Amino acid sequence: MATVEEFQDMQVDGMVVARTPLQLAVARLRHDYVALCSLLFIALLVVFAFAGSLFESWTNHPVNKSNSSGVDDYTLLPVGPLGGCSNGLASVGEPNCFVLGASNSLGYDMLVQLSYGARTSLTIGVVATILTVAAALLLGVVAGYVGGWTDTTIARLMDIVAAFPFLLFAVAASVAFGPSLWFVILIIAFFSWFYPGRIFRGEVLALRDREFVTAARMLGASNTRIVLRHLLPQLIGPVTVYASLSIAGAIAAEAALSYLGFGLPLEIPSWGRMISDAVPGGLYINAPFLMVFPGTLLILTVLAFNLLGDGLRDALDPRGGTQN
Amino acid sequence: MALLTVENLRTTFRTDDGPVCAVDGVSLTVDAGQVLGIVGESGCGKSAMSLSIMGLLPDSATVEGSIQLGEHQLVGMPKSELRTLRGSEVAMIFQDPMTSLNPVMTIGWQLEEAVRLHQKVSRREARALAVAGLAAVGIPSPEDRLKTYPHELSGGMRQRVMIAMALLNRPRLLIADEPTTALDVTTQAQILELMRDLRSEVDAAIVLITHDLGVVAEVCDEVAVMYAGRIVERAPVDELFARPQHPYTWGLLASLPGRNRAGERLHQIAGSPPSLMNPPAGCRFAPRCAMAMDVCRADPAPVLAAVAGSDTVVACHLDAPTRAREGARVASGEESA
Fold first, then answer.
1. Which alpha helices (DSSP H) does chain B contain, by range?
2. B283 plus B136 within the same structural domain
3. Number of helices (H), then strands (E), in chain B
4. Measuring CA to CA, which residue among A244, A237, A262 is closest to residue A314?
5. Is B152 found in the same domain as B85?
6. Which CATH entry fits the domain spanning A51-60+110-287+298-306: 1.10.443.10, 3.40.50.2300, 1.10.3720.10, 3.40.50.720?
7. What's the pTM?
8. Which residues contact A7 (CB under 8 A, 6 or more apart)?
C-alpha cells in the first residue's frame, strides 16, 4: 500500500534501498499530515507549559494569586470584553492586563493558569502513562507468555478492574486519601493498565508460538532472554500507540476529576478546575472565555494525542486501521 | 559407538480427550557423519519425535524411554541443563524459514546471539564467527548480509541463514525437520546440495525428517519409515528403494509421481492414518493394507526383525518370499497389488 511518495523515498540513485522497520514507519508518518499537525500541537503545548514562569514575570501576575485589578469590585466578574482585558492587546506590560487578558473569578491570571495547567496535564498524562504501560507490559506479557493459571488469574484481574466504575471509585478514594498529585496519577494508572494489558497479552499470545520463538529456544535461549530480547522489541509498535492514547485518556480523566473538585490540591492549577470555576452563578454566561480557553485547550490536547496515536498505529502497522 | 541412541521412546500428549501417544516405542541409532532419514505421512509422529529429542515439547507432553546423545541422557534431564545442550550439542532446522527468523532483528543480531549463548566470546569475535557461518552456507558478501532483516532475503537465503545459525556452535547432532518443504524446487535442490556438502565437513549426525522420498534418495544413508508413531521399516537407502519390505513403504514408493506413468492418476494409499488416541490392535497399518491377514489385526503387533541377506529390519507378518516379490514389483515401478 505504499504511496507514490513512499516509492520515491525508496529510490536513491535509482536503486531500491532496504530500510529498517523504523525508517519505514517514519516515512509513512511523514506523509500523515493529521499526525504531523498533532505532533506540532503537542510540541507547542510543551513549550507553552514550560513558559509558565515567563508569563508570570511578563504579566507580573504570579500563579495562584488573585489580582484584584482583574475583577470588577461590584459585580465580582472579570472585567473587559474577553472577561478581564481592560485595555486590549495594546497594553502588554501593564500590570493589570495581559495578552489573552482574561482572569477567572478569583482574579487569577488566565494565561498563567493555562500555562501551569498545561504543565499539570502533561505531567499527569506522561507519568500516569509510564506507570500504565509498565504495569500493562509486566502483567500482559507474563499472562501471555506463561499461560495456564497465571494467565487466568491475571485475565480475571483485568476483568475486575475493567468492571470498576472509575469516577465513583476515584471520588470516594479521593475523599479517603485526601488530594494529592500522586494520588491522581496512581488512581488513573490503576484504572488504565488493563486495556493495553489485554492488548499486550494478546500480542504475546500470538507471538509465543511463532516459529522464531521455537527457533530461539532451539538455540538454547532461556525464557527470560526470549521475552526480553525477542518478544519485547516486537511490542514497540503497540506500546507507542497505546502510550499516546493513554496520555490522552489520563489528561481527560484528570480534567474530569478536577472538574468535580476531587483529586488535585487547590494549589496545583488544572484545566478541569478552571472550567468548573466558570460554572457557579453562571459566570461563563458573562465571561464565556473562562470556559472556552481551558475547554478548547483540553479538547485540542486530548484530540492531538488521540490522532497521534492513530497516526502511529497506521505508520507502525500498515495492515489495518484507517486509510488516509 | 553411535552418537545418538534412542531406545523405546514414548511421547504422550495430554489432551482434553485423553492421552495421545504420538511416538510409541521408537528405537534408532545414528552415527557421526551419517544421515538418517525419517519418512512417513503427516501425523505419524516424525516431528513429535524430533521435538522430543530437542526437549522442545510443551509441558502437556511426557517423554519416556531413553535418548542417549554422546555421554548425555536427555530423558529426565533438568530443563536448565538441556538448554545448555540445545544449540551447542544438538540443533534443529525448521520447515518454514519464512517464520523461523525473528522479523524485527537483523540477521547479524540473531547469528551473534546464537554464538554468544554458548561461547564466551567478544562481540567482534561473535561477528567474525557469524560471517564465517554465513560464508560456509554459500551466502555471498556475508558482511553486508549481517545488516539485513529477514524480509529482505529470499526463502532459500533464509533457510541458509537458519542452517548457518544451527551449525554456528558445531553441534554433534543436527535435526532437520522438513527443511525443504516450504521452498520451490530449484531452491530445494540447492539446499539439499548444501546439506550434502556440510555433512562431510561438520561431521555431525543428521536426522532428516521428510515426507519426500526424493529428498531421502538424495541425501540419506539410512531410512526409517514411520507409521502411526512406530517405525515399520529401517533400511540403508539403496536397500529401501531396491527391495522395500513393508506394505506401507510400497504404498509410499508407488505414490511417487513420474514413475513411468505420465498422465495417469497418482497412486494413493487408501484411507488415512489411524487416530493415535485409540490405535487399532496389532499392526497399525493393517486397516489400510491390501494384504492384511487375520494375524495382522490381532495383538501382539509385529516387531522389527532382520530381513535375511540385508541390513533391513521390518515389522510385518507377511512371509519373506511375498515381501520380496511385492517389493520388487513396486521397485520396478509397476502398480502394487
1. 46-54, 79-85, 107-118, 123-136, 142-145, 155-167, 185-202, 213-219, 237-242, 247-254, 320-331
2. no
3. 11, 12
4. A237
5. yes
6. 1.10.3720.10
7. 0.77
8. none
Q: Do A219 and B96 touch (CB under 8 A)?
A: no
CA distance A212 to chain B (A): 4
Q: How far, in whole angstroms, is CA B153 from its chain's centroid? A: 26
CA dihedral of residues B161, B164, B166, B171 (deg, nearest 10): 180
Inter-chain residue contact B166 with A221, CB threshold 8 Å: no
Tens-place pLDDT, residues B139-160: 888 998 898 888 888 888 888 8
Lookup result for grid cell 539403496? B238
Q: Whose CA is closest to B179, among B137, B234, B124, B226?
A: B137
State the CB neighbour count (10 A cutoff) for residue A139.
Answer: 23
* N-to-C CA span, chain A: 11
Q: Do residues B188 and B159 make contact, with C-beta atoms less than 8 angstroms apart?
A: no
Judged by CB atoms closer than 8 Å, whether chains meet at A214 and B94 is answered as: yes
Lowest-pLDDT range of A107-116, A179-188, A258-267: A107-116
Largest Cα separation within chain B, whole Å, is 67
Dihedral over alpha carbons B94, B98, B100, B103 (to 10 degrees): 170
Chain B: give the shortest CA distance to residue A322, in Å. 24
Which residues from A are below 8 Å from B120, CB to CB? none
Q: Please report how the helices A194-208 and A148-163 are oriented relative to each other, as an axis angle in degrees rounded to 10.
A: 150
Q: Which three cell numbers, joined as nine digits, stand for A7?
A: 516509492
Q: Are residues B8 and B152 in the same domain?
A: yes
Asked whether the beta carbons of residue B102 and residue A211 sit closer than 8 angstroms, the reply is: no
Q: In Å, what is the CA distance from B58 to each residue of A151, A171, B55, B265?
A: 16, 47, 9, 40
Amino acid, res. A157: L
Per residue in A189-237, pLDDT (tens digit) is: 999 999 999 999 999 999 988 888 988 988 888 889 999 988 998 898 8
Phi, psi of B288, deg, nearest 5: -105, 0
Least CB–CB distance from B87: residue in A218, A229, A234: A218
Contact A312, A35 (CB under 8 A): yes
Tell me if B179 sits within 8 A of B7, measured CB to CB: no
Which residue in A has a C-alpha nearest to residue B55's C-alpha? A218
* Min Cα separation A231/chain B (Å): 9
Give the domain ranges of chain A.
4-31, 51-60+110-287+298-306
Written as one letter, the residue type at B182 is A
The Cα–Cα gap between B63 and B91 comes to 19
> Residue A202: its pLDDT value, please?
93
Q: Do residues A63 and A52 touch, judged by C-beta distance below 8 A? A: yes
For chain A, how are helix, strand and coil distributed in percent, rounded to 5?
A: 70, 0, 25
Structural contact between residues B34 and B40, judged by C-beta atoms closer than 8 angstroms: no
Q: Do B205 and B258 lie in a common domain?
A: no
CA distances from A144 to A111, A134, B83, B159, B212 (A): 47, 15, 22, 29, 36
- Considering only CB atoms, A220 lies closest to which of B87, B105, B148, namely B87
Q: Please tell me whether residues B293 and B154 are part of one structural domain.
A: no
- Cβ atoms within 10 Å of B19's Cβ, excluding its own: 14
Contact yes or no for B186/B167 (Cβ under 8 A): no
